[in-house]
């Protein structure tokens, strides 16, 4: 099969929403080339455990690459992607140069191209994300490994929004807790919650590709007795109760189901949200407070925000 590589030169701020647009358009795999990764300083206790090649990155801006099957609908799909990206301006998201290029790649090239960007990453004091095809020896005896193969699902576990969610789970999950992971993607947050001692984890995603990937990764990490995955639109039809709800999705989506989260989370429980750009932080805070949550902590990493909210 032939695949078309769509390459978008944009900004760091637009990474998450554009990646989501590509994912919803049926993109099979997303690669992010951010030159900031070449120069940013790492904290001593954790950081990427590999070398980056400057030749793989643009001189300015951020390049997002995705892969679409070559078929009779390709032109229409690309036009819809372009229109959706242009509409991000309505939400005050800076899309930068917004230069879109298309090229054709063979299936074998597509299947392996993105893997060179994905290596073992120590994302917190406890957790290290390790791709399934990499050999990795734990550095510390108490290090917790999450093996991950995102496949065609969105999320490798190393994006700042995911890292903050996992760090928030470390601070909030107690032994035996019930956790709901909304928009699970590759299942990494559900796996982390299970490894932190949660008694039951419910992973939800509207995309059947993500559901399959999450099921595979949960089984790979041997937490299938704790974590279950099913296809579901946000919290529709979910009754709970839950000690923790975690959602790493766009701010515009989070505010749509804050009331549902408030209904399901137990008193004293937590709603962890991320995928929030700085410009949307206040909107999410306001909606959380209005729904009956108290803002316990706001976490910031690069241009991204995560919020730990506690139900009164």
Polypeptide structure, described:
By secondary structure, the protein is of the alpha/beta class. It has two domains: 2-117, Alpha-Beta Plaits (2-Layer Sandwich); 152-311, Rossmann fold (3-Layer(aba) Sandwich). It contains ten helices and 14 strands. The protein has a seven-stranded mixed β-sheet, sandwiched between helices. A four-stranded antiparallel β-sheet has the order 2-3-1-4. A three-stranded mixed β-sheet has the order 5-6-7, covered by helices on one side. α5 runs parallel beside α6 (188-195). The protein is globular. The N and C termini lie far apart (54 Å).
Question: What is the structure about, briefly put?
Answer:
With 312 residues, the chain is an alpha/beta fold. It has helices at residues 15-24, 36-39, 74-86, 107-113, 160-172, 188-195, 208-220, 251-254, 258-264, 281-290, and strands at residues 2-10, 30-33, 62-69, 99-106, 121-122, 127-131, 144-148, 178-182, 200-205, 227-231, 242-248, 265-277, 293-301, 304-311.
Query: What's the structural domain tally?
Result: 2
Largest sheet: 7 strands, mixed
In CATH, the topology of the largest domain is named Rossmann fold
Please provide the count of β strands: 14
Strand order of the largest sheet: 10-9-8-11-12-14-13
Secondary structure tally, helices: 10
Oligomeric assembly: single chain
**Strand percentage, roughly?**
25-35%
- Could you tell me the mean pLDDT? 84
CATH class category of the largest domain: Alpha Beta
CATH architecture of the largest domain, by name, is: 3-Layer(aba) Sandwich
Low-confidence stretches: 38-54
* Strand/helix succession: EHEHEHEHEEEHEHEHEEHHEHEE
Basic shape: globular
């Amino acid at each position: 099969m032939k695949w078309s590589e769509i390459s978008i030169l944009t900004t760091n701020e637009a990474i998450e929403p554009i990646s989501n647009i590509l994912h919803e358009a049926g993109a099979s795999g997303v690669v992010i080339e951010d030159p900031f990764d070449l120069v940013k300083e790492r904290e001593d206790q954790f950081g990427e455990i590999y070398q980056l090649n400057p030749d793989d990155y643009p001189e300015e801006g951020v390049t997002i690459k995705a892969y679409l099957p070559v078929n009779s609908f390709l032109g229409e799909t690309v036009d819809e992607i372009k229109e959706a990206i242009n509409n991000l301006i309505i939400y005050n998201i800076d899309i930068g140069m917004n230069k879109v290029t298309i090229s054709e790649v063979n299936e074998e090239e597509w299947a392996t191209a993105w893997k060179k960007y994905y290596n073992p990453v120590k994302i917190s004091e406890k957790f290290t994300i390790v791709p399934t095809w990499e050999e990795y020896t734990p550095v510390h005896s108490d290090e917790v490994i999450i093996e991950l193969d995102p496949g065609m699902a969105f999320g490798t576990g190393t994006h700042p929004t995911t890292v903050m969610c996992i760090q928030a789970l470390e601070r909030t999950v107690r032994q035996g807790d019930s956790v709901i992971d909304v928009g699970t993607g590759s299942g990494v947050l559900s796996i982390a919650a299970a490894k932190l001692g949660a008694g039951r984890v419910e992973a939800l995603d509207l995309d059947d590709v993500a559901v399959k990937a999450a099921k595979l990764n949960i089984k790979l990490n041997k937490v299938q007795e704790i974590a279950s995955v099913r296809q579901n639109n946000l919290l529709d039809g979910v009754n709970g109760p839950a000690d923790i709800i975690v959602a790493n999705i766009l701010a515009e989506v989070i505010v749509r189901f804050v009331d549902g989260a408030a209904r399901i989370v137990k008193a004293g429980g937590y709603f962890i949200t991320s995928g929030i750009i700085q410009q949307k932080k206040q909107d999410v805070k306001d909606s959380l407070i209005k729904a009956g949550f108290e803002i316990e902590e706001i976490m910031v990493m690069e241009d991204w925000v995560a919020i730990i909210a506690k139900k009164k």
